[in-house]
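Hello again, I could really use a second opinion on something today. I've been staring at a protein lately and its backbone has me curious. Please have a think about how the structure follows from the sequence. I owe you a coffee for this, so here goes:
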Amino acid sequence: MKIIVLGGVAAGTKVAAKLMREDRSNEVVVLNKGSDISYAGCGLPYYVSHVIEDKSGLIVNTPAKLEALTGAKVLVRTEATKVDRAAKQVTAVNLDTGAETVYDYDKLVIATGASPIRPPIEGLDLENVFFMRTPDDAVALRELVSGGEIKRAVVVGAGYIGLEIAENLAKDGVKPFVLDMAPHALPGFDEEFAAYIEGKLLDAGIPVVTGVKVTALEGADGKVKKVLTDRKAYKCDLVVLSAGIRPNTAFLSDTGLEMFKGTLLTNEQGQTNDPDVYAVGDCAMVRSAVTGKPAWSPMGSTANISGRIVAQNIMGKSVKYRGSLGTAVCQLPGMNVGRTGLTEAQAAAEGFDPISVVTIVDDKAHYMPGAASFAMKMIADRNTRRFLGVQVAGPGAVDKIVDIAVTALMCKATLDDLDGADFAYAPPFSTAIHPFAHTLNVLKNKLDGVLDSFTPLEYAQGKAEGWQLIDVSIQPAMEGVPYVDLTKIDGPLPGYGLEDKLLLVCNKGKRAYLTQNRLRAYGYKNVKVLEGGNLFTSFE
């Protein structure tokens, strides 16, 4: 069988390699526009700050190495310009010679990826303006920063790559500002959780300015010197544009292949509306494993999973892609963040009746060196108790929390299915009650009415107006707020009536819950806990 694969990197090379492993007699030809056939796009920010020292560390496979390993033929600097579905042919141009070649196929795999969005503003052609998509981008940026003349940078885009770039610029002694049009950083996090992360970034010297639109770049002597926005101007010596990506599918506009916002629509087998044409990677639309609806998941993990499935289906098997969860993890200064599944806002939009809880929990035994905390948000459906998603931040191994949640989501587990799970425990790794299990217990308590609380978002929205704050931390921690010591409560509190609305706040939320339990025993009717305590919500 003759299969043409358009594009390399993660998806295209995975398809090609698996096709040749499935049947060595296949004739697989990979046509790739760039010179690098397979590289670690997610590793680019770490090359900038010398965490990855050598560029070769970013190159997963050279064309020659891929050919030797797989048996597929690889042609680089070769751009597909036309697909004729009726004739089952692809026309491609050699970018070095300009020569056109027509390639016949039995099956076609489109894995052309995506390119950075170029906003329609003036100044993009100034010197020291960068996009971050290929190893050459990272090499050029590192060379510039290594010169020692770059003091201030503006990163446009507060997604994962943008924040990772900002972190790695900061490691090199460059002061970064991050700008984004969205109300908050990091798509895929609920607003209060994103705001929490933004606060931590500010503490680490990386201010994130959201809800701001970049209108132009200004320069002097041909170099960028200022970023203009609809609010104010930001001086800079360097700009990195990371404001999203757009699928590389314009050359397919007249083919009749079905698309949505430039992404090729596929079924569970990876087929487009043409059964002989498959699409995979950043140029393809997949499906949500939670809702079953179309979802875009431009991630290397999704590309590899779906690439393997497409190759098997081309070879006559019937393998379905089970869906994406929007899973992501990111390393930031002093903090790792991760998420998977639906946010609370997404769950409500999808027709669920979401209930959530925010906790601050130990990430390992508190007496171990390096012990710290996770901030976690867990979401479930109120009626069915189905687990829907998690968000987590902290200096520890947030990927453990995320991966547990992924397993639960793929199995469509309820909170009760997850209760009592035998998670790994030893003091260097976790707590005796695992942080995932701890948060699960708190959410179950909330569902069952054992815990009565305000979420940080509800508090920020003013829903606690009229409630009296009481500091119930181990030691007084909130200036100007009355303090009550849990261990000394042995009856009604002097000065507080049994009908008074009392909002209990401690550092993490646990001691407030214990205090609530005790006050209820003494007849208090209106006692609530602020989830996450004053470590999640700032009272300054």
In short: The chain has a mean pLDDT of 94. The chain has four domains: 2-113+246-314, 129-243, 334-447, 453-536. Residues 453-536 form a domain with the Oxidized Rhodanese; domain 1 fold (CATH 3.40.250.10). DSSP finds 14 helices and 33 strands in the chain.
